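Researcher: Final request for today, and then I'll write up notes for the group meeting. The sequence and the SMILES for zinc ion follow.
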Amino acid sequence: MSIDKKRKTISCPIILIIFLVIAIPLGIEYCKQWNFNQGIIKSQDRKIELQQIKNLNLWDMTIKNIKSNNKYIEVKYDNYQVTLNSEKIEQKNKLELSVKHGQSDYERWKDQDILEIDVSKVQPYNLVEQIELNNSKLLKDLKKIDIYGIRADDKKIEYIETKEIQDDITVFVCREEYERYVMVYVPIAEIEVEKEEIELFKNESYQMQIKLKPESATTKMVHIDDLKEGSPIQIKEDGVIQGLEVGTEEFCIEAEEGAVEKKIKVIVKAKVEGIQVESEKIQLTEGESKKIEAKVLPEEIEDKTLNYVTSDAQIAKIDQEGKIEALKEGEVTITITTNAEPPQERKITVIVNKKQEKVEEPPPVQVQTSDTKDYTAILQNYVRGVLIVNKQYSLPSNYDPGTNAEAQEAFNKMKQAAQAQGISLKIVSGYRSYQTQQAIYQRNVQIYGEEVANSFSAKPGQSEHQTGLAFDVNSTRWNFKDTVEAKWLADNCDEYGFIIRYPENKQEKTGYVYEPWHVRYVGKDLAKQIKESGLCLEEYLGIVS
Ligand SMILES: [Zn+2]
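Model: Predicted protein-zinc ion complex:
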């Protein structure tokens, strides 16, 4: 770096002013490495006269500069002017430019070789109130200069101020407490940043931490050239980087007109907003498996990896593809997390139901037979030995077995038992023929409309009443469910081989709303098993309605 280097004017660069705590400038030794240093003696108390000045020291590079450009250096004190020209400094090779006062403390900055000037030619003067720095060509290339004062007592150097170098002359006011002043330009030697590769999220910002070394550097400014249009980032003057779009950008922080620089890479990433799941609750049966349908949001996230962890691997295992394996009855929480940042979490519940043991014994209900009718057509209505009638399993119009004798007998026993406890049960609707059901259904459609009618009234051939195994007890009005009879029936009917065929909250499975009055005879064992399982008949047999 040379002071002669012309400062480029960059159109609208971003100038970052870094404020640093200026320490006592031990960094003054940098002057030796660079090419400008000027010290001027000043004392109010002792009224130093220029006759006392014995030496004028020039530092090496300064002299080279003066020589190569055939420059004149002027050091001006009020009316006085010391002029050095290249002839006089010919054999010298000093770096420091200072006015030396007798046996002063300048020893620490000067080099071995001293350039002597004849101060007898300098006219006397009284008191230096102000120091004017004649803005020689040497100074012209500088924008700022740091001024340090030297205290007389302990000879400590203290930083005083940074002075802008004006057009021609720079003036600063002397203070009594300093014996003399030293003006130093300390260039930036290094730009230090907290991160050379910055990752940030779209729509978020990052404050760059920039440190200039040495701390005593005169110019506390760096600049960044304007970014190209369409850059994924924006940089503000205070060093805040804003992520505008997903993408990568590189830029350079420059100091000393590009002599010192630091490359910065910025990666703008999309921010994970969440995890979308198909369902928060999954029901499985032991031995079953299912893949969780989950994805990272938003779509532009690059790393779509999800991690799955189960709260109990003995109940349900999960692999890294999100496939759950139901092992035993119980409930687990599956925690899904994102790989992409910021990490997001989603929990889903998996309930593993006990697998129903196969019904080994054929159920007590047998296929109806008739001497006169061919009932083989209804064999397809038997699932695991149970006669099924619902919206998927219809009975033919000629299936007319009448009331099942076994079911009737079972009801009679139940009625007696209820009676003994003061509960009165009676059948209000039992066996219905296909034709009777047809008439009922048509009437309901007329009154309620087809959609509503279908939720409680069976189409002909789809009524369980046609089996002769179903009874409506006491009432078919909605308020029946709140009666003691309804409660007794629900609690005890399994003892007599009946089930509440259309339980509450099972409409999706049975195809019908809750009918607390409608019981279906399936035999004692099966009735008890079904009640215990908490399932409706369709669920228990694994069929649809
Ligand atoms: Zn019914």
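Model: Residues 376-541 form a domain with the Muramoyl-pentapeptide Carboxypeptidase; domain 2 fold (CATH 3.30.1380.10). The chain has four domains: 26-184, 192-269, 274-353, 376-541.
Researcher: Thanks, that's everything.
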